[in-house]
Amino acid sequence: MEEVVIVIADLYLTSAAEAASIRGVVLPGLGRIARYGAGHAIHNGWRAWLARWIGNPELAAESPATVAAAASRIKRSDAVGRMAWLATPVHMVAGLSSVHLDARGLLRVEPEVRRMLATEFNRVFADSGCRLEALGSSGFLLTTPQISAPPTVDPARVLGASVTEALPAASAAPELRRLGAEVEMWLHDHQANADRVKRGRLPITALWLWGGGVAREGVGAQWDEELLSTQNADTIPASALRGAATLAATAVPSPGVAFGGDPYLHGLWRSNGASARAMPNGFNEVLGHSGRRAVFVVDLLEALDAHREWTIRDALVDADRRWIAAALDSLHRREVARVTVVANDHKLTLGPRDRMKLWRMPRPALSALQ
Question: In which domain, by residue range, is 186 found?
Fold first, then answer.
C-alpha cells in the first residue's frame, strides 16, 4: 500500500485544559514519527487538506456542510436556493461567568434516536423553513433558507473551553443564533435526554450549527440500494451516481479506502465516486483492501463514549496503539510505503528511509504537533 493517513479529528491543543490533560502521556507510535519523520503545519484544517490529498482541490474550497451534503438525501428541488449546515449534538455546561463545551461534549447518538429527533424537529419547526436530516454516518445536516453565514468553528476545537468566542455574534448571525436558542429550548427536558441520563450518558443540550454553505443535492436512497451489492468495490458504478450534480456520469477512480464516521469524510468520498466505511476492529483489516491508499479518521470521543471510565489520556494511548503503532509495524514489514498522522493542524509523515536517521534525539510525541 502506497500510504496510510491517520487523522485524529478531535485532538486540538489550543485549549489549555485539553493540553494540560494529556501532558506527559507516553505515545510510542507517535513518538517514533515525531523523532524520525517530517512535520509540517497544514492550513484550513484537516478536511480541506484531505480533499487536496485525494486530488480534489475544488472540494477543498467548499464549506464542510456543502461537502457533507453529498452523503445526504437532499433532492435537487430541495437544494435550490438553500443553505446547508452541520448540526453536531453537544453537551454544554453553564458556569458562573460563561458557557463551556464539556470536555466529552461531542455526543454520539444512536441512529434510531437521531432519526426520531430529525422527524420531530421537522414537525416542530415546520414553519421555519428549516429541515433536519439524520445522516447515515453521524450527526445531522440542517438545511435552511438563505441566512447570514459568518465563519463558524468546528466544535472539536472548543472542547473543554468557553463557547463565547467560538459562536458567531448575534449581530452577525441573528437567524442562526435565534434558531440555536430555540433548539436548546426544544431539547431541554426532552424524553430522549431523560433516556440518555438513565443510561449514564450526557444529555444533548444543543445542536452546534457550523460549516455552513450552499446546499447541494445528495446521492440519496438510490446510492444506498446499489451500494448493498458493491460493499467490497473500490469504485461505485456510474448508475449509482445518477442525479448527483457534482459527480461524473461514468465510474470515477477511487480516492482510496476510507474509514470513520465523520460526515465530511463520507461526503468527500461520495463526491469522488466511492464510499467511506465504518471504522474496522483493527488496522490489519485494511491490508486486505486493494486500494493504493487508506485513510482512518479517528474520533477520541467515540472511544470515551464506549469506555466511560476512560480519560482523554486513555483514549489517546488506545488510538496510538491500535492505529499509529500498528501502521508503523506494517511500514516496518514493507506492507505500507508511508504513514502520515494528521492532528492539531499539523501532519507528520514517516517513510521507509526516515528510520535510518539515527542521529535524531527522542522528543515528546505531542511536541511535534505544535
Answer: 82-214
